[in-house]
Write a structure and sequence with these properties.
Elements (H helix, E strand, L loop, with lengths): L1 H8 L6 H28 L26 H9 L4 E7 L7 H21 L4 E8 L3 E8 L14 H12 L4 E6 L5 E8 L9
Parallel strand pairs: 1-2
Antiparallel strand pairs: 2-3, 3-5, 4-5
Helix pairs in contact: 1-2, 4-5
């Protein structure tokens, strides 16, 4: 709320960058709160009762980002100079909110790393719907990275993606491609998430 109020106070044209930064803080805070809400929901034991009286007024939240917002995400990177191609194999179907959020965040983090560190202007997002799993690959053709090394500043992002996927019973790997560039691979089991294969 403080970040939102501060944007109204920053009216000078010289403070355009400051306004953008504050707006980013506000968006990131809203996303973090929504993810916290979702995490608490996952941790709540089945059958646990909601509190009789909420401690604070319930404010309607934006929907949790999922694959229905993938095109919007891709367009946001196009605006920053990164052209992203999307490829889908298998029969696309509705997935649990937790899986959709995890996949969305892995794609978002991977493309952010590409934009910041790859020194290239193209990337590919591949989604594969298999009977028992959703497979994801995000690849770029950026500058070659020595095997065993990593692009600057991405270490925590990769760890976070790995933890997010592992929490749903999946696995994630990330590293340089043999011919150059970088690849993030993730696989999330759908049966474990309550989805029947089709």
């Amino acid at each position: 709320m403080q970040a939102g109020a501060l944007t109204c106070l920053l009216d000078d044209e010289d403070l355009v960058q400051a306004r953008e930064s504050v707006a980013h803080i506000q968006r990131a805070s809203e996303e973090a709160l929504e993810e916290l809400r979702l995490t608490v929901g996952l941790l709540r034991e089945p059958g646990a009762l909601e509190p009789a009286e909420p401690m604070a007024p319930v404010v309607p939240m934006e929907p949790v980002p999922g694959l229905d917002r993938l095109e919007e995400l891709i367009c946001s990177f196009a605006g920053a100079g990164l052209q992203v191609t999307r490829e889908v194999t298998g029969q696309a179907r509705s997935l649990p909110e937790t899986v959709e959020l995890a996949v969305y965040r892995v794609i978002q983090e991977s493309l952010t790393n590409t934009r910041k560190h790859a020194d290239c202007d193209t990337a590919v997002v591949r989604l594969g719907y298999a009977p028992g799993a959703l497979r994801l690959a995000v690849e770029d053709e950026g500058k070659a990275v020595a095997q065993g090394s990593r692009r600057p500043l991405e270490g925590h992002g990769i760890v976070g993606m790995r933890e997010r996927v592992a929490a749903l019973g999946g696995r994630l790997s990330a590293g340089p491609r043999p011919g150059g560039g970088y690849r993030v691979l993730a696989e999330l089991p759908l049966r474990a998430a309550g989805i029947e294969g089709s």
